[in-house]
């Protein structure tokens, strides 16, 4: 059975992890390579780096970071944040990223999805959607870290992204993000049932039951940030819960 | 003795991860972009992501088809990953009908399933059923049956002679997830992205190629 993927997400800037992590056993808990290695041995199914660097120079450190990580970590690696051009995508893929996640740039210029998936294959193009509820069963797409309402309907945008050649959707609920009271299941279901490609649920996870709910509502994968970084939950606990609910996961190998 | 492996670079997909994985397994990996160089190696990997047709046409236009065929006939080890694996078959039906390398008689077809709730690409970790016979045992040495590997694809290959398969996987239907027939190995999953167990397969390949 295809397992639901459990994906830790690291915010990075200038080659460093942004939020402090709680890995006391690591030599340098601020080094994304060290943290990614740790998550890999903890049983992560993929790793996401979200680059929140604002400057061009800083971005080069991200390419270098991807290069160093890909030499040590042999599970899929996705990079998102500030990717604007085919050149940006090429640089990241050549450095060893498996997928790139497009957000604001895809909203601004959807044809980049098509150009990128034609050139590099749909399997490496993730479209990230930050959605916020505007009324009952209606969500809008927000950009620039959730500050700007594009007015686009999230469901229609998701369908359009698929038409343009997205291979996967990373769906973040702006309403639930940081609340720890669970994923936005209605949003998840609305998007997942509208598209034929995998959907990664993001924003709101707080306890193990939230992950089995996400699966039930159509998530192919779940994204987790601070909950793992601060060891409020471990990947092992999440996977054990999923298995107890007869939800398929890739089992963790003891290192 | 250093163990040398060629990685065939024909412009379809990112070979960086394959090189990284080979280095991690203590092999010396060489990027080969001209067909004449393959014969210098005892082991070669054909990676690749993208569409079957353009990749097959490109390999032929550069003369890689003949070079690979001669290479295989000389008994040397070849491993195809993902699209590289699919190209081993006779024909592919991705956006048309294309001739592959015909190293393994069989076809590559799109998943056409009744169950519309299944997502495509088939992306993520799925477990495989390993065939219990001589060649598969070499490929999967030190790997347990039902182990999970990382897949990402919407098309699958099926050999005419099912005994050339080394494993099967289920996603709506049962499909061939890898082959191991004499000196030809290939997998639909990505060993270079399948953690420790994937690296184990690459190590098995490196050892077999340098015997």
> Would you identify the regions of chain B where 5 or more consecutive residues have pLDDT less than 50?
none
Tell me the number of strands of chain B. 13
Provide the number of structural domains of chain A. 1
Percentage beta strand of chain B: 35-45%
| Rg of chain A (C-alpha, Å) | 17 Å
Strand arrangement, largest sheet of chain B? Answer: 2-1-3-4-13-12-11-8-9
Task: Give the biggest sheet of chain B.
Answer: 9 strands, mixed
CATH H-tier superfamily of chain B: Class I glutamine amidotransferase (GATase) domain
* Mean pLDDT across residues of chain A: 93
From the N-terminal CA to the C-terminal CA of chain A, the straight-line distance is 23 Å
* Separation of the first and last Cα atoms of chain B: 11 Å
Assign an overall shape of chain B: globular
Spell out the helices and strands of chain A N to C.
Answer: EEHEHEHEHHEEEHEHEHEHH
Shape of chain A: globular
Structure classification of chain B? alpha/beta
Q: Which pair has the most extensive contact?
A: A-B, 35 and 36 residues
Summarize the structure.
The complex is a heterodimer of chains A (255) and B (211). Chain A has 255 residues and is of the alpha/beta class.
What report would you give on this structure?
The complex is a heterodimer of chains A (255) and B (211). Chain A is α/β, with parallel strands linked by helices and 255 residues long. Chain A has one domain (5-244): TIM Barrel. Chain A is built from ten helices and eleven strands. Chain A has an eight-stranded parallel beta barrel with strand order 1-3-4-5-6-9-10-11, surrounded by eight helices. The radius of gyration of chain A is 17 Å and the shape is globular. The two termini of chain A are 23 Å apart. Chain B is α/β, with parallel strands linked by helices. Chain B has a single domain, classed as Rossmann fold. Helices cover 26% and strands 35% of the residues of chain B. Chain B contains six helices and 13 strands. Chain B has helices at 16-24, 52-61, 64-73, 83-86, 134-139, 195-209, and strands spanning 3-8, 27-32, 43-46, 77-81, 89-92, 98-99, 104-110, 122-130, 148-153, 155-159, 165-171, 173-181, 184-187. In chain B, the strands form two sheets. Chain B has a nine-stranded mixed sheet. Chain B has a four-stranded mixed sheet with strand order 6-5-7-10, with helices on one face. In chain B, strand 12 (173-181) and strand 13 (184-187) form a beta hairpin. The mean pLDDT of chain B is 95. Classes of the chains: A alpha/beta (255), B alpha/beta (211).
């Amino acid at each position: 059975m295809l397992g639901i993927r459990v994906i830790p997400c690291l915010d990075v800037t200038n080659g460093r992890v942004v939020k402090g992590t709680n890995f006391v056993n690591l030599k340098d808990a601020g080094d994304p390579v060290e943290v990614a290695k740790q998550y890999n041995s903890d049983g992560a199914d993929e790793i996401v780096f979200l680059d929140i660097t604002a400057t061009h120079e800083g971005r080069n450190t991200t390419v270098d970071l991807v290069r160093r990580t890909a030499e040590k970590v042999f599970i899929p690696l996705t990079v998102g944040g500030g990717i604007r051009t085919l050149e940006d995508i090429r640089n990241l893929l050549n450095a060893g990223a498996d997928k790139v996640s497009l957000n604001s740039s895809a909203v601004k210029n959807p044809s980049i999805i098509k150009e990128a998936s034609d050139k590099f294959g749909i399997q490496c193009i993730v479209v990230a959607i930050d959605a916020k509820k505007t009324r009952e069963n209606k969500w809008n797409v927000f950009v620039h870290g959730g500050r700007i309402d594009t007015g686009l309907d999230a469901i229609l945008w998701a369908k359009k992204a698929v038409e343009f050649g997205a291979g996967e959707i990373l769906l973040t609920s702006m309403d639930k993000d940081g609340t720890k009271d669970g994923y936005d299941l209605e949003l998840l279901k609305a998007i997942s049932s509208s598209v034929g490609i995998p959907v990664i649920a993001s924003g709101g996870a707080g306890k193990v039951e939230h992950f089995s709910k996400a699966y039930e509502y159509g998530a192919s994968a779940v994204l987790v940030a601070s909950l793992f970084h601060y060891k409020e939950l471990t990947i092992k606990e999440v996977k054990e819960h999923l298995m107890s609910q007869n939800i398929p996961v890739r089992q963790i190998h003891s290192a | 003795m250093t163990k040398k492996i060629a990685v065939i670079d024909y412009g379809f997909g990112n070979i960086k991860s394959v090189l990284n994985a080979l280095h991690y397994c203590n092999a010396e990996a060489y990027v080969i972009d001209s067909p004449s160089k393959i014969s210098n190696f005892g082991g070669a990997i054909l990676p690749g992501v993208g569409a079957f047709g353009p990749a097959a046409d490109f390999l032929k236009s550069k003369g890689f088809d003949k070079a690979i065929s001669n290479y295989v006939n000389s008994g040397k080890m070849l491993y195809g990953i993902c699209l590289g694996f699919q190209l081993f078959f006779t024909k592919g039906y991705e956006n048309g009908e294309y001739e592959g390398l015909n190293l393994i008689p069989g076809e590559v077809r799109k998943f056409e399933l009744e169950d519309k709730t299944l997502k495509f690409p088939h992306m993520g970790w799925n477990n495989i059923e390993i065939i219990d016979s001589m060649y598969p045992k070499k490929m999967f040495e030190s790997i347990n049956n039902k182990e999970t590997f990382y897949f990402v694809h919407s098309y699958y290959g099926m050999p005419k002679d099912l005994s050339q398969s080394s494993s099967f996987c289920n996603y709506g239907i049962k499909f061939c997830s890898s082959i191991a027939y004499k000196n030809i190995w290939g997998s639909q999953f990505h060993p270079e992205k399948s953690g420790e167990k994937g690296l184990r397969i690459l190590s098995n390949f490196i050892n077999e190629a340098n015997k």
